[in-house]
Design goal:
Layout lengths: L5 H13 L19 E9 L5 E8 L5 E5 L5 E7 L5 E3 L7 H7 L6 E2 L5 E3 L2 E4 L2 E4 L11 E3 L12 E7 L2 E10 L10 E9 L4 E10 L3 E2 L3 E2 L2 E2 L13 E4 L3 E3 L12 E2 L11 E2 L9 H6 L3 E5 L8 E8 L4 E7 L3 E5 L23 E6 L14 E2 L5 E11 L1
């Protein structure tokens, strides 16, 4: 994919704005079908320590529009059409940097070095024990979550716009120094977001290290196909291409088992409304307060393959998730509350008002020798890709 210099991108955006393809808010309410793809770059605000945060508005040729910031690679807004063609923001986020710094629910964030949980904030690698910050204690059991107290979601990344043909995107890159949050090795990370004419959001991850280290990068976007702050996601129908899952203890750490989902509330091998079985008398649901679990995908080849599908019947919005990863975490917003403000004036979010589908390696893999390894060594290149494919039916 080739890079496009910012001046050229802004010139193309100015022409697009004249035709009404992009509104001054970076939304797509007035965007017509067939609008030329473009990227708008503008300031989003500053972090509490004074760093400038840039916003990239990606306008896709197929009708999807994304607002993305270089603070944590966060997707702030995601507009997709419903079956009538009306476009709505279907993701949770904040209008200001302060919202992300204050509430921190990982809305739309790049997650690293290690997505999900590591038990007791410790692991042993090549005979050396490493200790990570404890920033999560579900069930009263401590763990390190999503990279620690300051994961990749809390950094301002280097960034630049991208373009190839009728696809547009943004490239993020950063260096995580040796010892960052307790992890060994200097890690150079590059992540590219692409928005294609087919309404595919493709994420490409790449990293190299100078010392062996665990790595498990993912994206923590929250979806609500009815629109942000428009109720719960319990009526969304979910399919997971996974016959097995990894049960957890009360601290949400995998026990090491991999068990079949057939005959349990975790069987989404055919479409099920998320709320249909969430109140079942099931120990795993009690531990998670609902669904907050890891499914082992049927495809383990490392090649791009289907992982999940999501449908909301009132709008007709439909999405497929494809990934090269071996597992996926389904989280249904069990810790969201109405104390979290919405991007919509005067509105707040609600309990289970969004869901996340995080492609990944399994949680606590550095401590689970039976799980696929997450160790990256010098001379090797970490590569992963995930696609969110949007449509209607």
């Amino acid at each position: 994919m080739k890079r496009v210099m910012r001046g050229a991108v802004l010139a193309s955006v100015a022409a697009a704005a004249v035709t009404g393809c992009v509104t001054d808010k970076g939304a797509c309410e007035t965007m017509s079908k067939g609008c030329e793809p473009s990227v708008v770059v503008k300031p989003f605000g500053k972090t509490k320590d004074g760093q400038l945060v840039q916003q990239y508005t990606l306008t896709g040729a197929g009708g999807v529009v994304m607002d993305v910031i270089d603070y944590g690679g966060k997707v702030v807004r995601l507009f997709t059409p419903d079956r009538t063609g009306a476009k709505t923001d279907i993701t949770l986020g904040f209008n200001e940097v302060a919202g992300y710094e204050t509430h921190d629910p990982y809305f739309g964030s790049l997650i690293g070095r290690y997505g999900n949980r590591i038990a007791k904030g410790t692991f042993t690698l090549d005979g050396v024990t490493y200790r990570l910050p404890i920033n999560n204690e579900p069930g009263g059991l401590p763990c390190s979550l999503h990279g620690g107290k300051r994961g990749f979601d809390a950094y301002v990344w280097h960034s630049e716009p991208l373009s190839e043909g009728r696809s547009v995107g943004v490239k993020f890159w950063m260096t995580s120094p040796d010892g960052d949050q307790g992890y060994p090795g200097k890690l150079d990370v590059t992540v590219c977001y692409w928005l294609t004419p087919e309404n595919v959001w493709r994420i490409e991850y790449e990293a190299v290290t100078d010392k062996a280290t665990p790595i498990n990068l993912t994206q923590h976007l929250y979806f609500n196909f009815k629109g942000e702050a428009e109720g719960t996601i319990l009526d969304h129908e979910l399919t997971l291409f996974a016959d097995r899952m990894t049960p957890v203890d009360k601290g949400l750490i995998p026990t090491g088992e991999v068990v079949p989902v057939k005959g349990t509330p975790f069987d989404f091998t055919t479409p099920w409304p998320i709320g249909a079985r969430i109140q079942a008398d099931n120990e795993q649901l009690r531990f998670g307060g609902g669904y907050d679990h890891n499914w082992v995908l049927n495809n383990q080849s490392g090649k791009l393959a289907p992982a999940a599908a999501l449908y909301e019947k009132s709008t007709g919005r439909f999405m497929e998730v494809w990934t090269t990863e071996p597992a996926i975490q389904f989280y249904c917003g069990n810790f969201l509350t109405d104390q979290v403000p919405s991007k919509k004036p005067g509105k707040k979010l609600c309990y289970r008002g969004g869901l996340a589908l995080e492609t990944q390696h399994s949680p606590d893999s550095p401590n689970q020798p039976a799980f696929p390894s997450t160790i990256l060594r010098p001379g090797a290149v970490y590569k992963s890709a995930t696609e969110y494919r949007f449509g209607v039916k």
